[in-house]
Amino acid sequence: MANSGGGAVCNGKIYSHKKWDGSQNGNCTKNGIVKEVQQNGKPHFYEKPVVESFEEAPLHVMVFTYMGYGIGTLFGYLRDFLRNSGIEKCNAAVEREEQKDFVPLYQNFENFYTRNIYMRIRDNWNRPICSAPGALFDVMERVSDDYNWTFRFTGRIIKDVINMGSYNFLGLAVRYDESMRTVKDVLEEYGVGVASTRHEMGTLNKHKELEDLVAQFLNVEAAMVFGMGFATNSMNIPALVGKGCLILSDELNHASLVLGARLSGATIRIFKHNNMQSLEKLLRDAVIYGQPRTRRAWKKILIMVEGVYSMEGSIVNLPQIVALKKKYKAYLYIDEAHSIGSVGPTGRGVVEFFGMDPQDVDVFMGTFTKSFGAAGGYIAGRKDLVDYLRVHSHSAVYATSMSPPIAEQIIRSMKFIMGLDGTTEGLKRVQQLAKNTRYFRQRLNEMGFIIYGNEESPVVPLLLYMPGKVAAFARHLLNRKIGVVVVGFPATPLAEARARFCISAAHTREMLDTVLEALDEMGDLLHLKYSRNKKSARPELYDETSFELDD
Amino acid sequence: MATAAEQWVLVEMVQALYEAPAYHLILEGILILWIIRLLFSKTYKLQERSDLTVKEKEELIEEWQPEPLVPPISKDHPALNYNIVSGPPSHSIVVNGKECINFASFNFLGLLDNPRVKAAALASLKKYGVGTCGPRGFYGTFDVHLDLEDRLAKFMKTEEAIIYSYGFATIASAIPAYSKRGDIVFVDRAACFAIQKGLQASRSNIKLFEHNDMADLERLLKEQEIEDQKNPRKARVTRRFIVVEGLYMNTGTICPLPELVQLKYKYKARIFLEESLSFGVLGEHGRGVTEHFGINIDDIDLISANMENALASIGGFCCGRSFVIDHQRLSGQGYCFSASLPPLLAAAAIEALNIMEENPGITFEPRKSDCRLH
């Protein structure tokens, strides 16, 4: 696991080693990490060093953020007091009269954050739209007369809002056009529902076709598809591991992975996000000391990671994890919900991104919601794994199978990406996505925002920190007809609220430029440009073939 | 001089010993005995960390062999040789190339191949495409979803409804949103798998009562009441829930809802009713088991159903009062962390609901055929 030596300086960014003693103090500033692709003797596919950065904010920002939450909490207490004593009218729904003497359904303090802080800025979430979630979409305008307790629709529609929020990486979620004719035919022939589980009458020939195609796409032996991405994790992890097994799961894993791990009954240990030393230490301790107290050996060790982490934009350090897994004989489960279709030269996911062998990963899991414009999930891998899941998966026995037109849409999109429909359009889209991602990230870095994550990941979190700025950011941008997603506590740590952009292959250069201009102005208006990395004064040259000197 | 002083102190001491109160002496005596015990007992370390050498550790790592990831499955397991259905799974179904009459799908109202439902889905496909590309909170809320939630709430005569994108996930996310560690859930022994998973995820105390046996449930509730009286402070914060199904998937019987409502008010537990199989089938208009028994729908705290049986679509919904349902919008895992229902499925469900409202007689068909079979 060699890293390149010394502190190389490139384009003003300093690359340095991470500390090898494994301890991560809160005080150390994390700089860019250089990872060199390690192939165990195989030729390098990606010669470029991969850069991830998680810059820390200046101290005054953190102070103000906590102050903001503190003031919000104080006001929250005041308002709660006013509401409870009847001075202020309470807009929240209340329990039935007949059930007033039941044990209260919610504890007061559980909802404190929701009532007092979330409620003030609630209009930035759950915004309804009324068109396909493509690069441009139509948002329904809604206003609130009572400070976000209730909303009403004015009836107006804000048309052609630039969509920076939906997971539409390859631009395949569009309104109907002739290329979707097969979906229409399948809908008319098969109908919409299935009304049966996989073990009963729910396996249609469409499902079989789809599963063969997914296996071909990922270059593995077999695959199985399920109706919902979330349910794929929560129903199949219990089938793979049980009591007496160990799950090593990344700190920032998605709720579905956490739920699946909990439902399985195995012991769960968490390692720090993308931190290989932390993972190695846990692996060593697990193999050497066995189960706690009884010292029996673990039956299996399963490492659960994601391909691209949706809140951080980081890409998993796959080469090192595979090396660790081979050394300690663990199994690797990788959730490619955000990385399938969007990362890698032909869109096959993180395994292709790092140029590795699909045989190295034991369980591939992914969803069709993000890059394929449909719904559902899959698990792929060796044939005996998939056969076992066909028999023992909870979903196969108890849950309905995927709807036929959705399966057809996935088949169509996959063929499009793979080039099986006879054109190279799919490949062009994957490359366009990569180009858009690089351009967007470079421009944002230049402007001075703090961006998290890997340079190549199409998920771009822009840090906002303060709850007030979160609301102002989202509202101002909607006024300029740009739709963004902002995330706060509890999906992110309390002090690290962020805006998350999802780049799409359908975004044209003009759209990106419009968004970047707006972001520039927002950054100046709200003082969001916290980054302390030095930028060169001269503007960068992109793919300009000629440039003129201004007079 | 010194010895005299010592002796004098000794005499004082002995005198003090005689004059000291009894409890003081006893306490001192116990302390002395305790010290003697501690001195002579074996020492133990809190953590058994044997100091292995590096070489031994490497050997352990080399030697350890995990189980295979999946145990081998015999090749002729029935689930591996699927029945492949080609063509639509409606009343007559083509299985493995042969045409059969379909008694296996949950297609209660026969709406799976209804042309109006297909036309509505097609119209939605033309406008919205297929996927929603995001969870409800992040631009995944379409006007179709809001429409469907409205229609379902109006149909079931409740205040609010919430839609999930998968039937299984509906009740499995609804239960853990309300019932946490330390709460008590009384559930029927024949509850379906989705309910079991929801209960497992909630980490609450589960008390099973015999299938449809109200006397058994009352016994458990009485026992719980006695427990409560022993510890009233804890009882004040422990929520109680009764989870039942309208029509049980495992046995096909209907739950005795009127008695359950009586027990609810007597013992102050909330009722969660899972109506996947009874929605669209029981009751005058298909409103489920509450209509079948003529019970006020507000008496049931939460009704959850999936749209995959009667409504011939995919997904599920929960309905009830806003006080109860609104909580799931932030704490229902399958709602917040999962992409929303594709609009064409929602449009199909709305159209199916329209058909159900227009011909209330449609819900009588399955029951008539049922009587004939029995």
From TrEMBL, chain A:
Record keywords, A-Z: Acyltransferase, Endoplasmic reticulum, Lipid metabolism, Membrane, Pyridoxal phosphate, Sphingolipid metabolism, Transferase, Transmembrane, Transmembrane helix
InterPro entries: Aminotrans_II_pyridoxalP_BS (IPR001917), Aminotransferase_I/II_large (IPR004839), AON_synthase_class-II (IPR050087), PyrdxlP-dep_Trfase (IPR015424), PyrdxlP-dep_Trfase_major (IPR015421), PyrdxlP-dep_Trfase_small (IPR015422)
GO molecular function: pyridoxal phosphate binding; serine C-palmitoyltransferase activity
UniProt key word Transmembrane helix: yes
Keyword Transferase assigned: yes
UniProt record similarity statement: Belongs to the class-II pyridoxal-phosphate-dependent aminotransferase family.
Name of the protein in question: serine C-palmitoyltransferase
Lineage: Eukaryota, Metazoa, Chordata, Craniata, Vertebrata
TrEMBL record, chain B:
Gene Ontology molecular function: pyridoxal phosphate binding; serine C-palmitoyltransferase activity
Catalytic reaction list: octadecanoyl-CoA + L-serine + H(+) = 3-oxoeicosasphinganine + CO2 + CoA; tetradecanoyl-CoA + L-serine + H(+) = 3-oxohexadecasphinganine + CO2 + CoA; dodecanoyl-CoA + L-serine + H(+) = 3-oxotetradecasphinganine + CO2 + CoA; L-serine + hexadecanoyl-CoA + H(+) = 3-oxosphinganine + CO2 + CoA
Species of the source: Myotis myotis
Swiss-Prot/TrEMBL GO biological process terms: ceramide biosynthetic process; sphingosine biosynthetic process
This protein's name: Serine palmitoyltransferase 1
Pathway: Lipid metabolism; sphingolipid metabolism; Sphingolipid metabolism
Keywords for the protein's UniProt record, in alphabetical order: Acyltransferase, Lipid metabolism, Membrane, Pyridoxal phosphate, Sphingolipid metabolism, Transferase, Transmembrane, Transmembrane helix
Domain Aminotransferase class I/classII large residues, every copy: 99-357
Family label: Belongs to the class-II pyridoxal-phosphate-dependent aminotransferase family.
Function: Component of the serine palmitoyltransferase multisubunit enzyme (SPT) that catalyzes the initial and rate-limiting step in sphingolipid biosynthesis by condensing L-serine and activated acyl-CoA (most commonly palmitoyl-CoA) to form long-chain bases. The SPT complex is also composed of SPTLC2 or SPTLC3 and SPTSSA or SPTSSB. Within this complex, the heterodimer with SPTLC2 or SPTLC3 forms the catalytic core. The composition of the serine palmitoyltransferase (SPT) complex determines the substrate preference.
GO cellular component: endoplasmic reticulum; membrane
Organism placement in taxonomy: Eukaryota, Metazoa, Chordata, Craniata, Vertebrata
Spans traversing the lipid bilayer: 20-40, 161-179
Cofactor(s) listed in the protein's UniProt record: pyridoxal 5'-phosphate
